[in-house]
Fold these 2 entries.
Entry 1:
Amino acid sequence: MKFQTTDPAANPSAIFYKCCTVDLRNGEMKFADVPCRNLEDVLGGFGRSFQDLAKRKIENAYCDQNPLIVNTGLLTGSSAMTGMRTYFSGYSPIKGSKVGLPAAMWSAGSGKFGAKFKWTGLDELVFENRSEQPIYVVIKETETGPQVELKSAEHLLGLSTHEKIMALQEKYDNAHFAAIGRAGENWQNNYMGAVALSTENQLKSKEDKFRFAGRGGMGSLMGYKNILALVAQSSDKISKVSEAVKKVNINVIKGGGSARIQPLSRGGGGGTWAAYEVLQEFHAVPVNNFRPQGNAIPEKLFRENVEKEYDIKSESCFRCGITCHNNISEKNADGSKGEFLAKFDYEPLNLLSTNIGIHDAGQAARLIQLGDNYGMDAISLGVTISYALSYNERHPEAPILNGATFGDYEKIRELVIQTGEGELPEIGRGSMRLSESLDETSYAYHVKGLEIAAYQPETNPGYVWAIAGGHISMGTYGLLTREGKSDLESWVKGITEDKLHIVGFDMIGLCKFFDITKGIGTQMVVDCLKSEFDLEVSAEDIRAAVRRAFLRGLALELRQGYSKAEFSLPAEVSENPNRNIKLPNITSPEFFEKLQKRVWEIFEPELEDQ
Amino acid sequence: MKINVKLIGLFRTGRFKQEDRQYPNGPKVRDIIDVLQLPQQHFGIVLVNGVHAGTDTVLSEGDHLVLLPIVDGG
């Protein structure tokens, strides 16, 4: 980025981001220092990419006109803690409206790739068209600025995400990697391909400990473009942490933002996995395709039960003090750590275990590991499989696929493998398409074509207005369980004011655990921007930019053909209310109708400006 | 008076899971949190007889109190 102003809100065009546009059809590249249109452009991530996507009318995600935009946020690669995010944006193969148009989508991931990418001197890479041959792309720092090279990737074809990263590591020093797996290579039949991002831990240990930009099939779009991997090669540009940023970082670690995510050994909450125990108190842990049974079955995957048989180690991303990863390994007979299996985060753990009837931690870990190595979004994969298992439970006389049922580990494992290999488009193309083909849509747990995260929809009608899936783009998932809010006013305010601000993290380059409850319109972020770039920007200006970016995403959904009726929860939620969930009912048709009316009354006038 | 107290997640570490405990008459939820020395930064949810409540809620004989840490997913 180049800064010719200290006032990014008033004078954004005096700030430039370095963009390289690559035409994959002929290898032509154009570098440009692009003036920012607004504060959203300055902040980066989807705040910038969605403005560019909005300029294109895309009718099919797999078309040459659909770009893949790889970018970072303003604080990616900075000394602000968690500043490691990379964003992948494009029109999604999996998320789409009923009229058949793809939705604009972004996906974010940590690991060290984002920082390395930023340190090459590039802020954004736009891939146009598609390559005839499989390639990987090297972005590297040179004395004359960032350079981009396209390389043949024939030797990487067929390798897992981890194998690709390991193969590239042998060739490139001082680099980090973003790679798709076989799922992304099989983009025709797999719309849920993810992008794996390498971590320091992975490169040092050679274990498959990566991070993912999982949602929305950005790995499948990358596969369509025939890009198997990206390499970001640069020196580490770690500047001395200023006193101002040091204060912020201490606040991130010790303040309210991340305390609950810290390891138990440091007095923290033990990562997102701890949500299991809290949600179980309400019988709101998803079980067997989002139908909690009011029993103790989810407790089998409580940490206290898992650690009896498995080794659990808390680890972190590069230079992050939050240490949110709970890495699960086999435990040897002598009690020492054995083979690494997988990382237990709440979402992938639940959706590839309890919600598909698997209650054995080892089996759950193996399924997570398998999905990660194929490079599939654990949420879309788990939820689409749980739909198929639910169908088979309802139709024992005529089951689909391999006849798998809840808890049948071997058959479920077979489904994961076949999906990753591109042999099972029924699963690979997501739950919306599968349920429509079977004409049983009520228990397909997606919203607007994208599978929901592991929070019961009964607890989160806010899913409906999430612009990039589940909980990551609408932070209302705790409004009922955590805050006990069941009145209409609280939900209208939550959706239209406070909780949409979670998307700000997907602009600026920070992880949500930086300050998940407050978003990025805070003094902490203001202080970081002043210290890192000498920018004078107010928290109010940042909040306004985040709101504009969110509304732009909502407007883009409507432009892509979503009707108001598609802004709805899975029908089963209201048609067959689950009495086992011990929380007030806020998803009755009457409540939801009122909520829709009020929310649109607030959003719609603002959408006209987008 | 007797209050049935249930702790969830990390609050159990070094304490208990669930038990009947005696308190002076009319304690507030906050008083019980203080006695148990629960870490403030993790404090998230209070349920009294299955209903969300605040730390100022005054408890009655035989109440069932559940104290939960805050939840965040990802």
Entry 2:
Amino acid sequence: MSGSGIDDVHALEPEDFIEEVHSFEHWFEAVEGYLKGLDHGHLPDVAEALLTAEERDRLIATFCSYAVAETAALEASSGLIAIAPNRHAKIFLSTQTVDEGRHVEVMLHRLRELGVPDPEAEVERRAGPSVRNLRKKILQLVEAHEWDAAIFAQNVALETMEYTVFRAHARTADPITRDLLERVLRDERRHIGFGENELGRRIREDKKRRLWLGTVKSELDSLVLQTFEEAMEEIGVPRWDRPSLGRDYLETVNRLGLV
Amino acid sequence: MTNFLDAYSIQYWLESCPQGYLMDTDYGHPADEKEPALVIEDPVLRDAAIRTTVQLVVGERCALASSSGLVGCAPDAPSQCFLATQTLDEARHVEVFTQRLYDLGVKKKELEDVIARYANPNLVKFAEILLEKVDKKDFVAGVVGQNVVLEGMAFSVFEMMETVNRDPNPKFAHTLTGTIADERRHVGFGENRIGSLIRQYPERKSEIEQMQKDMSYFMLATFADNFRSNEMQQEVEHARDELDAGARGDATWQGVNLAQAEPAEIEAVLSDTILKDFQARLGRIGLAYQTPAKPRVAA
Amino acid sequence: MSSVDVDPGADRTRGDADETPRRRYELEDLGFDEVPKKYRKFYRRWNGPGDTIAPNEALCPVCKVIIRSPRELRAGDRLYCMACMTRVRIVAGENGGLETETLY
């Protein structure tokens, strides 16, 4: 695995590819590219922008909601390890657990950088109601040991929403927030991919499972969309300029056949 | 609390572990290191290496299940973040020891069968006691069981094995060095974080102390099965016949030369070291160490 | 970046209905830092709808990263996206071009 002279990665056998990309070794070498030399999730030499009191307050509220979403992902990904159906999934979810833990940590630290003395208390006080409800719903599915439904809720619905929101926010954010979010987005790519591929494999020839997941999706849709709208309000994206969460989300559920 | 937990942050972990002592390693050791030919080619030594490594995989799977299960019931974000790093450390340990099984010739399709065949039943019971606490979302008992008892045991076992393998098997010794460095953080967190929680919930003490006693019993029973078995006696004699004194090197650990000591002597020094360590750690966090019953000698 | 094709053979990872030789490409690291160093040359960032996708490249439908192959792509080829762990297959699109579909 350590050899550098790889002629064609696409010539790998499918089983070898699956084993490789789910391993700690792969994660370890992948994150090294974009996490080395950072200070709490962003480059240390990026200067803090001058924010008005209103802008700062809005950013604090936004990070409070982000922290709840990331805590949900941390708790869910760690909770899913115990019920993961194989060793590869367990090891991948362990890497996701530390990714999510990193996101929680850098977001709480960003709140500190923005002048919040007790970030955890601030999150408790200011996070939006929809994201709290979404967290509760995801953790219920994990608690119930509903592997497929929980992976859908977390790695497809929540992660797709975060991916869309963070990308939209990064476009207009101050330099530190942008750098931080762009590095979080690099992690999210793995999480979304894991969710879609894991579910894709499992429902490929199982019609019952696909129908059941379709029901879970319908139940989650309104909660996900509410959370998305709430986040868009917080980051101040005008309604007419909002990226289509529906587009990314629908593309995924279409590929999975969950329509 | 926040300040001390900064030393257990993901930022610190990234700098010290992936960007520190694991840099330029391949499954925990330098990429050019291989299992010694003698271990691969000699069926007795290979079998012994597989059996030993299976116990490490079993222990690390338990640690992975436990640390991941504790994230959701940790009382604060810094503790959750630390347990996230521990989860990944444990997953890495599962992976590197599983890879060692493959390096020793275990086929991927045979992995679970090999583990089921060789896993020591007492080690499985040890794990079940801990995982029962984790299933109940009992954070205090879970952290004591995981980060004091399980990790304390692993810390000494790995240190002893690293000493034995340093000269004859540098690849395995280096793999163990990285896991020992991880365990140091884990036991440190256990002691530092749990002390305040024990003071907060003094009514939990007796139940947690009983858990330590039960886990310690099954740990000793695992050692007894291992060190007192006829297979172990034969393997030790065989290994000493095959390896001359020079190749065995200086394997002194806790004052005992492991390259020359009898299995019973090794069992005694290992058990004694771990139990004394438990006693000291538990004392520091405000728990009274409970002496476990002595396991029966296997027939 | 490309050189004349010297790749006549069929193999099991490729769609080979078309027997004509394929053009080969010398890949270099274009700074995609989300996969281990040894795999970086097989990927690059996508710059949006205006980005020209070369004959040896395909857009990952899941994570929108450009996957690169050392050979010109044809329908039936299999590719791996290591950024999101997806297997994709190249298929002929309705407009005569090549498209990707996920393989679970």
